[in-house]
Amino acid sequence: MPRESALTTPGDGNGRGVTLEAVAREAGVSRATASRVLNNSPKVSPEVRRAVERSIARLGYVPNPAARSLVTRRSDSVGVVITEPTSRLFNEPFFPRLLRGISGELAARQLQLVLLMPESRTDETRLEQYLLSGHVDGVVLVSLHGDDPLPGDLMRHGIPLVVGGRPASGVTASYVDVDNRDGARAAIRHLVSEGRRRIATIAGPADMAPGLDRLTGYRDGLDEAGQARDASLEAIADFTHEGGQHAMRHLLETRPDLDAVFAASDVMASAALSVLRAAGRSVPDDIAVVGYDDSPLAEASDPPLTSVRQPIEEMGRELVRLLAASTERSSQATRRVLLSTELVIRRSSHAGSAVQAGRDRG
Amino acid sequence: MPRESALTTPGDGNGRGVTLEAVAREAGVSRATASRVLNNSPKVSPEVRRAVERSIARLGYVPNPAARSLVTRRSDSVGVVITEPTSRLFNEPFFPRLLRGISGELAARQLQLVLLMPESRTDETRLEQYLLSGHVDGVVLVSLHGDDPLPGDLMRHGIPLVVGGRPASGVTASYVDVDNRDGARAAIRHLVSEGRRRIATIAGPADMAPGLDRLTGYRDGLDEAGQARDASLEAIADFTHEGGQHAMRHLLETRPDLDAVFAASDVMASAALSVLRAAGRSVPDDIAVVGYDDSPLAEASDPPLTSVRQPIEEMGRELVRLLAASTERSSQATRRVLLSTELVIRRSSHAGSAVQAGRDRG
DNA sequence: GAAGGCCGTGGAAGCGCTCTCTTGACACCG
DNA sequence: CGGTGTCAAGAGAGCGCTTCCACGGCCTTC
After folding, report:
1. What does DSSP assign to residue A217?
2. pLDDT given at position B352
3. Protein-contacted positions of strand C (CB under 7 Å)
4. What's the CA A46/C1' D29 distance, rounded, in angstroms?
5. Staple A163 to which of A175, A195, A260, B228, CB 3.0 to 4.6 Å?
6. Residue B236 falls in which region: left (phi positive, over 0), alpha (psi -120 to 50) or beta
7. pLDDT < 50 regions, chain B
8. pLDDT score, position B12
9. What was the pLDDT predicted at A332?
10. Rounded CA gap, B88 and B94, in Å?
11. Greatest CA span in chain B, whole angstroms?
């Protein structure tokens, strides 16, 4: 058992090319034992373990992941597939926050994040090949569009899978979603409590789950308060700035008497704000406005927007937890997790006061 | 050479567990030959190649990446390290756009993207271990903070490396950056051509490269136009909304005569907008405002902000190209790429007209 | 005091692939 | 007609690791 070899650079030696064999030799044990230390098997005596650990440090040994993966049949990494259309990707901090959540939880489990953003059909074919080839131990799918064959194919091949955002009906995978319906309901409840009586909504398109759910929540809220619903108070837009402006103008024409607007996104709420200002309506005195997402826009708007904040990071973390659960104990049970939202009240809905946001971003 | 085996599910057979050995047997050739087909070596006769390809399809064979990687000593994946502080991550679509650019270019090269977002010191230690262990063939580092030891360590170990955003002096790695200085200069040139004569700036902190470069560009622009610089026209903020508001109020107090403001970010420009409105100054009639980043905020502001648009996707693509170049021909030469910006003119700086953005996002 | 059990360790197989080296078939040349 | 070059194909080693199995030493137990 050599104490200090002049031939081996201590500490930060390059490590590349140093094999477990070399470590074992240095420590005067067999490769099997060295491997046991690496995988901290309980059946290694303390002295031997220490010796091996010293050799590892001395030689700067780093295990070869390919060799390990070849025999264990695990890759210790998970694929995160983002098929989100560009618009949503770029207009809110949804994407970075989600990735941060996922990344943090994966890191805690010593798993790696392989990011996959297919942009074309060709990409999607390759993607499937990739996921099926054992490159990853599991897959996180973010908001797939309805007819995507991917989840089905993955499940058929027995690859653990979780979906972020409620998947199209027919997909039986586990998923995590934000409680859009309840978020919208809370927004309406707030407007009602502020004394608003003719609450309109700028909704998202009905073929997108969040659009639909938030509209449903809006109606729930009115029912709850005993306010009559009215189709003339509902305008459908497409989550864009222009769509929001158009919808707001339309609402002002058909229902000039409205005293509040709940928009299904901050982008649309902010668009509504500019239309209202141009029309000479004051916010929040004449009309209260509430957005959704609590994006940077909400804070930057004038007046700052009351908005529904979603626990996006938490969604990422929960996705990983769910995936890990289905990997570890190969429980086939599909699970659904619904995360609750939080209403952040700002000036756009709260007459005559300078409300602080109550929480800072980050 | 069996034509059709009843034992093997054709087409979508699970593929897991099917080895190259099995393919070779099915095709009646040796494993070596099958491998040659896989790596399309030229020294395989057309008939044999076809036979092997048929067997691959029939068995649904997918190569085992670990086995391949073990012998080739390549991983065919690159690590993308994001150490960006949360603020910038979340306030602009910088991050998704960059990743999309990187992802697209990697896909074209059949490389995988391993995303690494260390959040703590511990994470960073593990990160380094990971990168040095041969998990990745190269590394893209996004905007590292000055004293990060990572680039040095990576270079010392001979791991190909490129940096996004100008790195701290001392780091000799190749990098891609956006021409912040020129972008700011173009903004000033525009304001001058609009007839503005007392142009102020809300600059970023001097210890951040973009902050510094944009301030320098602002000064360049004034020099170019023969307008005198004046320290009382320069306010330093921290890229936040609050910072922007504060700076704008300060400028209004000390230089009530200013007729234009160039802010180093849309967030700060938007904040300036709300302060100006509260002060009863009209934009753009009294005061023109220009932002930076062309974020969604620019379009949503009222009036919409003229802003400097950066080619973020292109930056991502260029990073990958640079990395690939340094991997393929192991050229040690460090290279610097500076990408040029584009000024998107909107109403906030263009008196008496309803300018269209000229380009849509996405 | 011999038989059995336990526990730490080593030997060795083998994961699925690539690639060097060798072989065999065939054509061409002197 | 033997020698040589060319080219497709096969044999086999080996990448670095995990893990099954066997083994030897020591402590119990009757």
Report:
1. H
2. 60
3. 7-12, 14-20
4. 28
5. A175
6. beta
7. 1-14, 354-362
8. 34
9. 64
10. 8
11. 89
Nearest residue in chain B measured CA to CA from A269: B300
Mapping DSSP to helix (H, G, I), strand (E, B) and coil, where does residue B1 land?
Answer: coil
**Subunit contact A16:B134, Cβ cutoff 8 A:** yes
Whole-number pLDDT of residue A6: 24
Say if residues A277 and A307 touch (Cβ distance below 8 Å): no
What digits encode the pLDDT tens for the residues A130-176?
898 888 999 999 977 667 888 888 888 889 999 998 887 777 889 99
Can you give the pTM of this predicted structure?
Answer: 0.87
User: Token pair for residue B108?
Assistant: 């074209």
Minimal Cβ distance to A267: which of B70, B110, B296: B296
Predicted pLDDT of residue B8: 28
For B100, which of A70, A112, A117 is closest by C-beta distance? A117
Percent of chain A with pLDDT over 90: 65
In what order do the strands lie in the sheet containing B260-263? B234-236, B199-203, B260-263, B288-293, B306-309, B342-344
Say which residue the tokens 């700036």 belong to: B201
- Whether residue B114 and residue A117 make contact (CB cut-off 8 A), yes or no, is no
The one-letter code for the residue type at A231 is A
List pLDDT tens digits, range A173-204: 899 999 999 999 999 999 999 999 999 999 99
* Separation of alpha carbons A352 and B57, rounded Å: 70
Helices (H), A135-231: 150-156, 180-193, 209-225
- Give the residue among B113, B103, B122, B109 at the shortest CA–CA distance from B81: B113
Q: Are A52 and A37 in contact (CB under 8 A)?
A: yes
Shortest distance, CA B227 to any CA of chain A (angstroms): 32
What is the Cα–Cα distance from A49 to A70, expressed in whole angstroms?
25
Tell me the two tokens of residue A31: 């490769």
> Which residues of chain A have a CB within 8 Å of the CB of B310?
none
Asked if residue A13 has pLDDT above 50, the reply is no
Q: How large is the angle between the packed helices B20-27 and B31-38, nearest 10 degrees?
A: 110
